[in-house]
């Protein structure tokens, strides 16, 4: 099948490369000419594990190419995917101007029976609206608009695309449903469940899913706060909860609040949609507000833990990306927390394995270090904000030696208090008793049952 992917960002590039891998002929189009030039020259403009190889393999195999011209490829396509950004707009709503512009660009050249597939996350009613946008430009043209929301996670996007929990097809006519069923046949033959419904339901499924996952994160953060006050230990509590299959272990790790290009804007848009249609989403409304205040309260906690040494203190922040295995810093907690630390008079250095260049565009006065131990040199405190494996594996002896202070604040709970104590560091983490003895009791018990000891990572 001939597919055009409009928008070669995190979703468009991954989806385009994966559809080519499934055997389709895919052209990825982007208005960012520099991005297309880089892709055509063999460079991948984003960091996503495995994407480089997948693009190279399918480009060399003749199934994947790139173009800065929309019209030519769109005029030959059976399916035109729209995977452009739908960023936050005013009052929590999303900005549909990019996707509407893309629809206007393809309308004059679409051949009859083309199916336009909305991959971007869009509020309910957008597919119908895009139908009108195209129909206004092409009176009498027979075409379909379908919704095919994307559930991949940055950092494991290829695995998620090729082995999804489910495929959601929102189609208001048989032609669109049949095309998408055929497109995904190589995956559905492998037993991936597929839900065929109408476009409005598909649009709602995406938002309701993201809002629900974000609620899990917000909930476990609240439980972590309670654990700290009453001597509980969040890992044990989350493990005990997650083993109930109705709850599940994912998204039950406390952290510095959810970030990224999806959850913050999607939860706000869900709230805005509820308000607009007089079906207020008050749970999610509260979640949105609490997620914001969490970042400021965790910044205040760094200052409080430093006590008298706070003013002028040197702090090394480890982790700028909103989650591990990506260079994406959109709405990353680090971008909120670091300026608050600076406002409190702290001097900040930072390290991230992939996201330094992206973060540097949003931060000022932050010294970036390619080596995390150089970032920690003479630091009064080290604050971990992203759950990179590099940090889980860090050489604590070397870290302690580099620092001038002894405070290690771990907002991703990568370590245990006893392990840190061995190196003479003072450990602050989330949702745990301050007493290393109590934490030890859980670890030694859990280690006898390794299958229970694994903490679920937060896949934001
Ligand atoms: P992105 O910002 O990385 O990529 C969007 C791309 O579209 C940019 O390269 C931009 O230049 C291009 N573009 C904009 N207008 C265009 C036009 N008229 N013609 C051609 N190219 C155009 O965005 P990302 O992260 O890929 O997100 C895309 C959509 O997918 C959004 O709606 C997002 O909410 C949704 N989504 C994102 C996920 C993620 O993990 N990033 C996961 C699931 C959904």
TrEMBL record:
Main enzyme class: oxidoreductase
- State whether keyword Oxidoreductase applies: yes
| Residues annotated as binding substrate | 151-154, 206, 251-255, 259, 323
Alphabetically ordered keywords of this record: NAD, Oxidoreductase
Q: Which reaction does it catalyse?
A: UDP-alpha-D-glucose + 2 NAD(+) + H2O = UDP-alpha-D-glucuronate + 2 NADH + 3 H(+)
| Occurrences of domain UDP-glucose/GDP-mannose dehydrogenase C-terminal (ranges) | 316-417
Short name of any one Pfam family annotated for the protein:
UDPG_MGDP_dh_C
This enzyme's EC code(s) = 1.1.1.22
What are the positions of the active site? 262
What GO terms are given for molecular function? NAD binding; UDP-glucose 6-dehydrogenase activity
GO biological process terms on file: polysaccharide biosynthetic process; UDP-glucuronate biosynthetic process
Annotated metabolic or biological route of this protein: Nucleotide-sugar biosynthesis; UDP-alpha-D-glucuronate biosynthesis; UDP-alpha-D-glucuronate from UDP-alpha-D-glucose: step 1/1
Q: Which Gene3D superfamilies match?
A: Cytochrome c1, transmembrane anchor, C-terminal (1.20.5.100), NAD(P)-binding Rossmann-like Domain (3.40.50.720)
Enumerate the residues binding NAD(+): 30, 35, 86, 121, 154, 265, 330
Family of the protein in this entry: Belongs to the UDP-glucose/GDP-mannose dehydrogenase family.
For this entry, the protein name equals UDP-glucose 6-dehydrogenase
């Amino acid at each position: 099948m001939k597919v055009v992917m409009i928008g070669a960002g995190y979703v468009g590039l991954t989806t385009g490369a994966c559809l080519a891998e499934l055997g389709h002929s895919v052209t990825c189009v982007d208005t960012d000419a520099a991005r297309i030039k880089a892709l055509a020259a063999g460079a991948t403009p984003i960091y996503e594990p495995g994407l480089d190889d997948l693009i190279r393999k399918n480009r060399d195999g003749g199934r994947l190419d790139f173009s800065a011209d929309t019209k030519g490829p769109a005029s030959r396509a059976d399916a035109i995917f729209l995977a452009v950004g739908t960023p936050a707009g005013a009052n929590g709503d999303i900005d549909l101007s990019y996707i509407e512009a893309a629809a206007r660009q393809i309308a004059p050249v679409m051949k009859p029976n083309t199916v336009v597939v909305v991959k971007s996350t869009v509020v309910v009613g957008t597919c119908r609206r895009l139908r009108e946008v195209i129909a206004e430009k092409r009176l009498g043209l027979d075409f379909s608009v379908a919704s095919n929301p994307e559930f991949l996670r940055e950092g494991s996007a290829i695995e998620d695309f090729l082995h999804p929990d489910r495929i959601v097809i929102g189609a208001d006519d048989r032609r669109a449903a049949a095309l998408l069923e055929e497109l995904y046949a190589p995956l559905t033959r492998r037993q991936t469940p597929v839900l065929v419904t109408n476009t409005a339901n598909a649009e709602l499924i995406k938002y309701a899913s993201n809002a629900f996952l974000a609620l899990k994160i917000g909930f476990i953060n609240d439980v972590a706060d309670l654990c700290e006050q009453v001597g509980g230990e969040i890992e044990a509590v989350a493990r005990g909860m997650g083993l109930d299959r109705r709850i599940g272990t994912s998204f039950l790790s406390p952290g510095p609040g959810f970030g990224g290009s999806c959850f913050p804007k999607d939860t706000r848009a869900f709230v805005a949609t509820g308000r607009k249609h007089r079906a207020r989403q008050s749970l999610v409304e509260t979640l949105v507000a609490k997620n914001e205040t969490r970042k400021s309260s965790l910044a205040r906690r760094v200052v409080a833990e430093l006590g008298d040494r706070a003013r002028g203190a040197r702090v090394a922040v480890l982790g700028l990306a909103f989650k591990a295995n990506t260079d994406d810093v959109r709405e990353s907690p680090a971008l909120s927390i670091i300026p608050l630390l600076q406002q409190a008079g702290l001097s900040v250095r930072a390290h991230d394995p992939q996201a330094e260049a992206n973060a540097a565009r949003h931060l000022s006065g932050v010294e970036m270090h390619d080596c995390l131990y150089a970032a920690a040199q003479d630091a009064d405190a080290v604050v971990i904000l992203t759950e990179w494996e590099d940090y889980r594996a860090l050489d604590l002896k070397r870290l302690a030696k580099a620092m001038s202070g002894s405070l290690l604040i771990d907002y991703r709970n990568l370590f245990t208090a006893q392990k840190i104590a061995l190196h003479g560091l003072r450990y602050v983490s989330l949702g745990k008793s301050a007493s290393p003895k109590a934490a030890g009791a859980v670890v030694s018990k859990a280690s006898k049952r390794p299958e229970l000891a694994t903490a679920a990572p937060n896949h934001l």
